[in-house]
């Protein structure tokens, strides 16, 4: 009993000391004459200390005391507190700092207001950021650039371009960061070329950030010639610019040129970093260059636990068909995200290991990792190539309910292929008719191929018409030979020359129908051609 009493007393003393410590500053301020302008420095010192230590709870307690007694700290301490709010995703605390900074007629410096705007931008609260911006008594280039960058990131391209014009009307000159942000908001080549001319005129075209942004945007619009011209005009080499041009070439499927520049970059003495290596791996993936990919892998070893690079390696090995290497990477990865799992599932499915892909998907679910759009595409692809119709139907119909994923063209395409392979053509047609988005030519081609396998002429004619409607530039000739039972005997793509190829010969008595469907030119004559041949037979 004495022991228990002793513990209770000790606990009471400890709590009392803690309470006394936490109210010490309040007591000193309460006993201080608030009208005196010599504010107690201890509170400001404590506030600054808590901010620099990133001790958010105690920093906010000190802030409340300061707010009560109209005390303001220096800008640096507040900037540290806002950084702490961002790191903790403490939105309400950040808003409380905002209220304090503008309380009782106090107006913080432009430097601090810019940090506040940036805080709201990073929290994704663009409306609040704009509200702070509009109430600023004075705006500098950082204020404008922060908003332009925010609008650009939010795909509000017109707003970003509008702010570029407004800032110049107010006499604020854009800098390299302004232009690198607004360039990424260009939604057309006309605006891009105009901005490029302005950049050259004011002499910012040699800046690393601007040059990199120009290359990125030209590449995004498929203007590789212009992107390479900007790159070739570079006088002083910079790794950022090298990375941009290599990434642009890889994204536009010009893997040969991307790899050539990568080798040139190495000869110039630049050490490849994560973004560059990711782009080079993408180029190796597009060209299925396994050995070169393995050479790049050597450079990746120093970034062994980099998630983005590991995912790029996974994708490269899967696309090159080296599943043993892919699995070794996957097993060794300490950190895996949904992209890692989706890449491995798709790699297994595309390389003929459908059942293993589905097992991996089940393991992913057990670990509580939520699949995304691409994951389900890989799962349905696996079901299609394994002939698992019921499983595929289950995954397809439950993706919305279980994971909140709306079926897209890729999902429908896998299901059409799955049903078509199983000979359930009427269900495949019904599914196409139920699609919320318009089926594309790939979807109809999947159905057309199923018609060849299962010899369904009527559905084939309908599917072929849809292919031509959606892709009139299709250069293939689809050649159908119809047997006396009315079923398709052969189907092949033709190279477009004037003579049709045949897979077999039939006598006049055997040939009831011979449909030549030359998609670009003859699809409208398909039915009449069949009728004429039938009458002649």
Automatic annotation (TrEMBL):
CC terms in the record's Gene Ontology section:
mitochondrion
Q: Does the keyword Plastid apply?
A: no
User: What's the main place this protein lives?
Assistant: mitochondrion
UniProt keyword list: Mitochondrion, Repeat, Transit peptide
Q: Which SUPFAM superfamilies match?
A: TPR-like
Q: Which domain of life is it from?
A: Eukaryota
Give the UniProt subcellular location, in the record's own words. Mitochondrion
Q: Name one Pfam family in it.
A: PPR
Question: Does Mitochondrion count among this protein's keywords?
Answer: yes
Q: Where are the PPR repeats?
A: 109-139, 140-174, 207-237, 238-272, 306-336, 337-371
Which GO terms are recorded in the biological process aspect for this UniProt protein?
Answer: RNA modification
Which family does this protein fall into? Answer: Belongs to the PPR family. PCMP-H subfamily.
Q: Which NCBIfam families match?
A: PPR
Name of the protein described by the UniProt record: PENTATRICOPEPTIDE REPEAT-CONTAINING PROTEIN MITOCHONDRIAL
Query: From which organism does this entry originate?
Result: Salix purpurea (Purple osier willow)
